[in-house]
Design a protein that fits this description.
The chain has 342 residues and is α/β, with parallel strands linked by helices. Helix content is 27%, strand content 27%.
Length: 342
């Protein structure tokens, strides 16, 4: 999935409790698979560090980790620009809260030794290595090993990133790389994506899952040495709550509410691992009025009546079911990947 971004309206609605039935329409998908990986865009530092979902400095309640488990999200990527929003203690608290809930994680670390280890999840007898990196963090952190940050495509840390992927390739049956990269509020790729994407594929990634732009971006198959890597440049927001985002133009204020799930099978074989049965499932973050009636839905099940009631529609006549579908087709259509819209 894309970003789990617990902004102020969601925090005000759910407080430090359950997310209730907000994800009820999506829950069957998350429960049916063998592994759900999400980008945890905010620290789960807990109440002791001050809960906040505004001013681009975030912190979520400790209960958030249990909410992930309640909705069958088994693993989260933690390397993103908000990882250090509550400093070292926020990083430590996040990891502890996830551990207590039984949620796997990587991208932030408690020691240099831990950072140097490959994170492997065993699913149905298959060892899946998960690697997580971000372009940078909004706030500084104490030790370089605490957050996987590559800074730029030509940095020394980018070489560490690629070495992580090569080591993962040697130690696991499949390699998934979660990348926090790209330019916010655009469908276009930036230099870091264009340069690092093929390099990560070459290093041995089977799937690259991108996040950060807060909008969907294209998907494609990257071919290297006879291998094909599924690259999802950005899946947009998974869970978020903001209308009229002040840093975006009208198109991307509207598309802030649209993300995607990517579903695929990892299939071992004599000639190597294959990524099969790939499909993209567009979703809509629905809410009404002054942030009421939160509901995460498949775009294919969304209606024009719901679109008309969405809070964003008050500010943009573009926010219509047919327009949202058109945007998704234009972004994902060229990939040839099955698109669940019909």
């Amino acid at each position: 999935t894309g970003d789990i971004l617990l902004e102020e309206p969601l925090l005000n609605t759910f407080g430090s409790g359950s997310w209730q039935d907000c994800l009820a329409d999506i829950d069957p998908l998350l429960a049916a698979d063998d592994l759900t990986i999400a980008n945890m865009e905010v620290p789960i530092g807990g109440e002791e560090l001050g809960i906040t979902g505004i001013d681009y400095s975030f912190n979520a309640p400790a209960r958030t980790a249990q909410n992930l488990k309640d909705h069958s999200i088994e693993f989260v990527s933690l390397a993103n620009n908000h990882a250090a929003d509550r400093g070292t203690q926020g990083i430590l608290n996040t990891r502890r809260n996830l551990d207590e809930a039984g949620i796997g994680h990587t991208g932030t670390f408690g020691s240099q030794e831990e950072r140097n280890q490959t994170n492997v999840v065993t699913v149905n007898g298959m060892d899946i290595a998960i690697v997580s990196w971000t372009y940078d963090t909004n706030q500084p952190y104490d030790q370089e090993w605490q957050v996987n940050s590559f800074y730029s495509p030509d940095s020394a840390q980018s070489q560490v990133l690629l070495e992580d992927v090569r080591r993962a390739r040697q130690q696991a049956d499949a390699v998934i790389v979660c990348m926090h990269w790209g330019t916010e509020f655009t469908y276009g790729l930036n230099d870091a994506q264009r340069i690092l994407g093929p390099q990560i594929a070459q290093a041995g990634a089977d799937v690259i899952i991108g996040n950060h732009p807060h909008t969907i971006q294209p998907a494609e198959w990257i071919e290297t040495d006879g291998r094909k890597t599924l690259c999802l440049w950005s899946l947009g927001n998974f869970l978020s709550s903001a209308y009229q985002v002040d840093r975006a133009d009208e198109t991307f204020q509207d598309m802030y509410e649209v993300g995607a799930l990517a579903a695929f099978d990892l299939v071992p074989g004599a000639s190597g691992l294959r990524v099969e049965n790939t499909r993209i499932i567009p979703i809509v973050n629905h809410f009404e009025g002054e942030y009421e009636s939160f509901r995460l839905m498949k775009l294919k099940d969304y209606t024009e009546e719901l679109a008309a009631a969405h809070s964003q529609r008050r500010f943009s006549d573009l926010f219509r079911k047919d327009w949202l579908v058109q945007q998704v087709h234009e972004v994902f259509g060229p990939s040839g990947i099955d698109l669940e819209l019909d």
